[in-house]
Amino acid sequence: MDFTFDEQQLAFRDAIHKFLMVEAAPEMLREVWETTKSGRSAELRAKLADQGLTALSVPEAFGGIGLGDLDWVLVQQELGYFAIPDSLTDSAYLAVYLLTHLPADVQLKREWLPRVAAGTARIAVGHPVNPLVADAANADLLLLWHDDEIHALTPDQVQLSFNPSIDLSRRLYKPAWTPSPATRICPAAQGRRLWADVLDRAALAASAQLLGLAQRMLDLGVDHAAQRKQFGKPVGSFQAVKHHLADVAVKIEFAEPVVHRAAQALATDDPRRDVQVSHAKLAAGEAARLAARKSIQAHGAMGYTWEADLQMYMKRAWALDAAWGDAKFHKARIAAAILTPGARLGPGTTF
Hints:
The protein is α+β, with helices and mostly antiparallel strands. The chain has 2 domains: 7-187, Orthogonal Bundle (Butyryl-Coa Dehydrogenase, subunit A, domain 1); 190-339, Butyryl-CoA Dehydrogenase, subunit A, domain 3 (Up-down Bundle), CATH 1.20.140.10. Helix content is 56%, strand content 10%. It has a 4-stranded mixed beta sheet. Mean pLDDT is 88; it is low at 236-240.
């Protein structure tokens, strides 16, 4: 079976990389982190929409492009590499998946999918695996879990309590709200499957971003090791430093096909897709953690400081590693699949 990406997918990835290289320099990230109350940039969101990213998986009938998981996984790696401070994944990937798979052709689809495609609407997604909802205060609509049901609420229907994150571009909130028949858009019987599928796609997106972040941290470590000198030589010429960075490169090389395999499993509705996704999350998380540690060692103590770009990508990696199921959660999913073949853990499962 051929798991390689086609020329069009690779060309799209390369185009996004070139675009973000210009529009998402570290200076832009610092500006968003330091001066923007929302942690978001309306200008950046408009540019992402111009590139078609907000419309990527919206069906053509609602003004989108109608692409799928395999196209998203490459985009997510680029979003991770540049640590894009935007809720693009939640709005244009996860929320779109929920809305397009609702059991009935409800008005909500006709109202919100064209707005998401145009980049004029942000939708936050609240799943039980995450106690806090990212970007809830910036959202125009919130899709929240309650006993496997899907509820749609406007910001005025939810009370939010802010919770700081180590990644200053992530705005996390604990929502307080009252479920009602008026807010329910999908019953539990259908919602259970949709929430499980959203968890898999969210974990895949986090895995792909972790891969991109790992590569960016490795690149920063290599660049610094080539410029920093000790005893009149670049520290990168010393064997110990070479081995540290080579270990990271190997870890990324082994994790990347695992993440791509998980995307293939989701795209083909593989019965073992949840196991593939959990494997991907664990492999990508391990690569990102190692990249952060070894790149800090290559930088020295200055790698921790605000002046070093490394700290932004490192903090994002730590945050994403714990989002959409931490290592304990995904190890338990794999163990359950091995010990109880055919079992699929529900979205409300905790460990």
